[in-house]
Amino acid sequence: xxxxxxxxDILDNAEALQEKVVSAEHWIEENPKIVIGVVVVLLxxxxxxxxxxxxxDTRDQEAQTEMFQAIRYFEKDNLDTLELxxxxxxxxxxxxxxxxxxxxxPAANLANFYAGAAYLKQGKFPLxxxxxxxxESSDLLVQARAYSLIGDAYMEQKDYANAASYYxxxxxxxxxxxxxxxxxxxxxxxxxxxxxxVKAKAAYQRIIDEYWDSxxxxxxxxxxxxxxxxx
Length: 231
Prior knowledge:
Elements: H1 2-30, H2 32-76, H3 79-87, H4 95-101, H5 106-122, H6 125-134, H7 142-156, H8 160-172, H9 180-193, H10 197-210, H11 217-230
């Protein structure tokens, strides 16, 4: 008896499904303009997405080529070449123009990092912070480096609270044994300047516990012992 009921339910459901299909087909026949409109919108959306991706990729390739000379000027690392890196030399674009001319491209994003680092070296700390905050990356090392540079800019302005915050961000972003101990040392110094010995000692302790084979561990032990003796 149960099997008969189950078979009847399946047949009823199949009939109901068929009725819905027929009803949908009838609605489509009665409303062809709406259907065509929906299809056109979907096609336009798909075209816009893939066309946009192609446009951005093409623009990014152009920007990467344009930025090559600016990076070379940046790497020479003196005040004259930093200015050329930022503003161009009349033949090659600088980072600032790449940011303006190639918006939304990965190259323009990277140009923000370089521009921020260049302004930091020039002592133009608010501009450094502005551009470094506009940079965003999922890279293992570069994003943490950007946070650290923002911290450096705040330290130079004696804004130790914001400096400590960004050093913490740097040390917490995809931690690694090569750079995280450096960021923790910077964070500890900022907290010491804030007279927050608890957080300073915690930063030193993290180096001691997690990065015991780093170049920073001896100083971390020494500075933490000094704070322990003074407390």
